[in-house]
Write a structure and sequence with these properties.
The protein is mainly α. About 75% of the residues lie in helices and about 0% in strands.
Length: about 500
């Protein structure tokens, strides 16, 4: 007869579960409030969501700093990058939510379900980044993805439904790849814990059959995360999905899901690289180079600014993917530095598309944001043109604006790792990207507005929440030179508190 196992609450270390419980509990509270009292103003849900996110941020920052904690049957792992990535996810979410107060046009923000799904999505991302167990990573991935599909569809336009279906289909395929890759690694090691998988592989490195299975499993997992990070050739869904989503949500999607996917990629693929599985490193480098180059060239020929920003976001993901292949502390620091600066700029750029939105497609029969719409914007909306130009210069990597520091740091890490040719490729791609960012600036400052633009374009009244978010994004973009060193020091501390599966 088996002896009963007594598990104490102290051993479960439930404090590691607290950030996710806060997000899930917050979503349930919003649904219960709607059940009790219907048709409450959306401002209540906005304020309640921000409050929940702030409490969640407080609970997260109160966890690990320079140490590693495991909890809840040892499937949760609160180490440096788990805390750091959750902080970035929550800060980006706090920036995004107030945008729902800016316009009545986007009706999805009037639904309580939108805010509940948003909190469930954040909980999914938190589970993803806070575990080295492939099952819990998968649960978090699908929780976040299913919520995000619905958030896109709530925009309630034909191309929104199309975008949600495409995202769902591609997400289902990615889930299949992830499941098969996890099954292969389980077959090799008898475990779904990355640490135990690494130990099993290291003990059987001389077995050619096992190494073929390792490469197969790693390839399947790489394909899964190539879908989530929209890397070539699995990137084709991204521009259509970004186009179908509301502009702020598209900006949010270009940052937060990628942060979560990069953290999981760090845990999984750097484990293989540390084990000297060189083919994995080669596959990642090839994927990164092709992604940043092909999508840059595709961005050059886009007629719509939103699609251009979508392709540029894919290119940025390819740029950052190089750091995963390098598997050094400096490269990992570069990932978080890049996205900590990129999230303000990119969310600000997509938000500016919202500000300049018009009721009818007066310039193009298909696109909401063709370049022609921005012609002469400096004469119609001078401050908007200046702000958008700042965001474009930052995305192009023009010093001293924010994204420049992320790019130069990653290129420095690449050179330090001995990949000078790769740093040259990254520099050339940054030069190509500058063309399509500067193209928008040329339209805004050097071209004349169309004669009927004042009659047919309606710029929305820029409300205080929108001004606050845009102002904060501009300040970070411009003043980043003074923030970089303290930010690098903090990220370095968190990276040092992380053990990548070994």
């Amino acid at each position: 007869m088996l002896e009963p196992v007594n598990i104490s609450f102290e051993a479960l270390n439930l404090s590691t579960l607290m950030p996710m419980l806060i997000a899930i509990g917050g979503g349930l509270i919003i649904l219960l409030i709607d059940l009790v009292k219907e048709n409450l103003h959306k401002s209540l849900y906005v304020m309640l969501t921000i409050l929940i996110l702030l409490v969640d941020l407080g609970a997260t920052t109160g966890l690990t700093y320079g140490a590693t904690e495991k909890g809840f049957f040892d499937v949760l792992l609160m180490d440096g990058i788990a805390v750091l990535s959750q902080v970035l996810i929550l800060v980006a979410s706090i920036l995004f939510i107030p945008l729902s107060l800016t316009s009545k046009r986007f009706h999805e923000y009037s639904y309580p379900e939108f805010f509940a799904l948003f909190l469930f999505m954040i909980a999914g991302f938190q589970f993803m980044v806070s575990s080295d167990n492939l099952i819990l990573i998968f649960v978090g991935l699908e929780t976040a993805s299913l919520s995000l599909y619905t958030l896109i569809a709530l925009h309630n336009r034909n191309n929104s439904f199309e975008a949600a279906v495409k995202y769902f289909t591609m997400g289902a395929l990615a889930a299949g790849f992830f499941t098969m890759g996890s099954a292969v690694l389980y077959g090799i090691s008898g475990s779904l814990e990355l640490g135990q998988i690494a130990t099993a592989i290291s003990e059987r490195m001389n077995d050619s059959g096992v190494m073929i299975l390792v490469l197969g499993g790693a390839g399947l997992l790489l394909a899964a995360f190539a879908f989530k990070l929209s890397l070539f050739p699995f990137h084709t869904w991204a521009p259509d999905v970004y186009e179908g989503a509301s502009a702020p949500l598209a900006g949010y999607m270009s940052v937060v899901p990628k942060i979560a996917a990069f953290v999981v990629s760090m845990r999984i693929f750097e484990m293989f690289i540390e084990l000297q599985v060189h083919w994995v490193q080669t596959m990642i480098i090839v994927l990164a180079v092709i992604t940043m180059t092909i999508t840059n060239l595709m961005a050059l020929v886009q007629e719509d600014v939103k699609r251009m920003l979508a392709y540029s976001s894919i290119s940025h993901a390819g740029f950052v993917m190089v750091a995963i292949a390098l598997a050094t502390d400096k490269a990992n620091t570069g990932v978080f530095l890049y996205y900590a600066l990129f999230m303000f700029t990119n969310l600000g750029a997509f938000t500016m598309l919202w500000v300049s939105r018009h009721k009818d497609r007066v310039h193009h029969s298909r696109f909401d944001h063709p370049y022609e719409k921005f012609a002469g914007m400096i004469k119609i909306m001078p401050m908007g043109a200046i702000v958008m130009a700042l965001f474009m210069l930052s995305l192009a990597g023009v010093p001293p604006f924010s994204v420049f520091w992320g790019k130069i740091y990653l290129m420095s890490a690449t050179v330090d790792a001995g990949y000078l040719w790769l740093a040259v490729v990254m520099g050339l791609n940054s030069a190509i990207a500058a063309y399509y960012y500067l193209k928008l600036i040329v339209y805004m400052f050097l071209k004349e507005p169309s004669s009927d633009i004042n009659q047919k374009i309606v710029y929305y009244n820029v409300s205080k929440p929108l001004l606050t978010i845009l102002g904060f994004a501009v300040i970070v973009t411009v003043a980043s030179i003074f923030m970089v060193n303290p930010l690098i020091d903090y990220i370095n501390t968190m990276i040092q508190a992380t053990n990548f599966g070994i």
